[in-house]
Amino acid sequence: MALVLLVLLILLCDTVSKKPSINCITDVDPLPLPHEFYQPGLLVIGEIASQVLYLFETPSFKEQPTQMLINEPMSVLKNYQHILALAFAIKEINGNPNILPNITSGFHALNSYYNARITTKATLSLLSTRQRFAPNFKCGIKRKLIAITGGLDSETSVSVATIIASYKMPQFTYGSYSPAQNDKTQFSSLYQMVPEEAYQYMGVVHLLQHFSWMWIGLLAVDDDRGDRFFQTMIPLLSKNGICAAFALKLPKLTYLSDLTDLVVKQAEKSKVLYDDKVNVCFVYGEPPSVYVLRLLFFLFPLISLQPIHKEWIVTSQWDFRSVSYQKIWDIESLHGAISFTVQSKELSGFQTFLRAINPFGGKGDGFIKDFWEQAFSCSLTFSNIHSESRNICTGEEKLENLPGIFFEMRMTGHSYNVYNAVYAVAHALQSFNLSRSTHRRNVDIQLLFQNVQSWQLNNFIRSITFNNSVDEAIHFNENGELKAGFDITNWVTYPNGSFIRAEVGRFDPWAPPGKEFTIHDYQIVWHRTFNQVLPLSACSKKCLPGYSKKKKEGEEFCCYDCDPCPEGMISEQMDMDSCAKCPQDHYSNYCHNQCIPKDISFLSYEEPTGIIFATLAISFFLVTVLVFGTFVKHQDTPIVKANNRRLTYILLISLAHCFLSSLLFIGKPGKVTCLLRQTIFGIVFSVAISSVLAKTIIVVMAFMATQPGSRTMPLVGKRLGYFVVLFCSLVQAGICVLWLSTSPPFPDKDMHSAHGIITLECNEGSVAMFFCVLSYIGCLAIVSFKFAFLARKLPDSFNEAKFITFSMLLFCIVWLSFIPTYVDTKGKSTVVLEIFSILISSAGLLGCIFSPKCYIIVLRPELNNRKLLIKRKT
What we know:
The protein is an alpha/beta fold.
């Protein structure tokens, strides 16, 4: 946790040196800052490096290992590569005849110490004459300062930009991104080699959604940058269906003497990190976060806390780097971490350049001595105060033998940004040269570049596009941001402090929609705790297909119960917010995870019920025809002549049609059959019942006409019967016409009566008209029953009133039972019920009225004569 400890030391520098053990560079020192790297040249690129160097004594810490903090100079060794990347770029440019020919470029690297006051002094020293701290006043040998690149953290970048803003000097930031940098009115010459942080956050959201990590922890140092991170990230996560289980603020170290209290207090706050449901944490990865997190990992076991094993996700500012006193600190807790790093490529010749670095040949390099001594734990001079505890440096030490946590031979993303920034300045100068040479002839290039002003390059930098040495296109957008994506890096650590950066994916915000995020799951190495199984990070278990999420009251929306989907609704995927309703022609299966097409159902001639009803209807029809034929054959016999022979024929014909009308209810409903089935049924039944009514009326009227003084004789006759049949039938026909003209029946589908079945049926159109038809038939039957009941005991040669009474009684029972049953019946059963009622009621009429007569005609013909009938009457 070097940076956090060093922030403490920086604050002490500003407090009149309360700790005499700390050597501070104060702003009253008139000389240039120590620890600088100077390479002369006509053109100078200033670099505010992030190399941190301090000397302090070790405070006491109960039961701490003596190796934890040692009494030696400290530095963030890996930052030295940024300066070497700058030197390497300058070396390449100076050796390239196609870029700035006959011009020698140089640079001047100074230390920022992660401190605003020292950064300010370093910036002002770049604006001064060498060896003279006089900002904005230069004399002697002139150096032309063209651009500045720095710094690694956002505070350094803003501190530098605030000073050079009035000069309009191009500044390239290569590390953290600050919202203040968006103010282009104040920082119009600020260029960012790192894309805006909002793109990183969206990449993290894509990553979390890809692995279904919906319950995560957020960590950031307790400062303004951390607050901005929480204020931005929590709403963004919520908008994308992800919850922050906690937002842990990591402490800012002040004095080492407060370390004990700080660790104890932070241990209490950090208990949230032991939540088993939160296995993924997103860390705002600026250097303070890295140092504090590693400090907690190291100190928690010392106060009897369990190690923290999580899957860490970090931003592009993150890097595995340590100061020298952290050599023994294990980085196993960070094994398997995933970070978003600015896309970088390996440069040809860079590793060769690094291998040539030697502490005895670094002319002008004020950093290499401290770097070499701390990296290899040796001393370059015999007079070094630590020489008695160290070996002498031979200069033969190899950088490639250093653990990656101290130095990497592979170019890091930040160093790659520095490299590209230098080339951007060089190509901008090249464009400036070309633009001036086209307007002037015989231009003295040396004189031209002596007079160039740094602000003149801004227009060229904004519009520049070039390919670097690895053929990667470099250009800036309208906001001065480098148009680049992010590599998704998996960090695989080893006990000796070395690690491997494995590129497992990519996030490119400039890619076409749907192709921004790519990742290779099988390449990722997870933390050893998870046994190479994808870690889960969720407040609740996933809801299986067939279930939907039900939010828990008073908790985040990521915490929920799983409710089964109701009937007719499904959820096909995991963790559905709600169940989806199946289409009307589908139904949900037993597990409620799939919609299945419903079966089509109607009463067909192929199924047993349809066959039985069709057979009965045709059989009864044939029996009716047979009876009709029998009556026609014996039409002159007394029993046929009794009670109006023609009315009997009308009744038999209507009954035959009643049996046939039931066939309209069998088969697939169509437009024609739907229009005919109820109307034909209503009319033929009305004809049949009105014929029975006419027969009973004639019997009653005939008896009344035989009474003395009766005046009903003129009313008795065939015409009365015909009139009754015609009138009653026409009334029913009128009702049917009104029905068809207003709301006729039509083919319909019943989707809901039976589970998993679509019943094809005839929608009656107007239910009221349908019951009007039935009610009218019922009224005719009741009147017929009443007349037949009154005439059942009247003397006559052959009184069929008693048989009509039984038939009407049966008819009324059938249809009175039909109505409530019909209302409660759904689907195909309604058709079955109506066919059954038609056949039973028609067969009742046929059997009750005509079976006694057929018995006499066919089986007892001797009884079918007038004398016997008169004798029976007497």
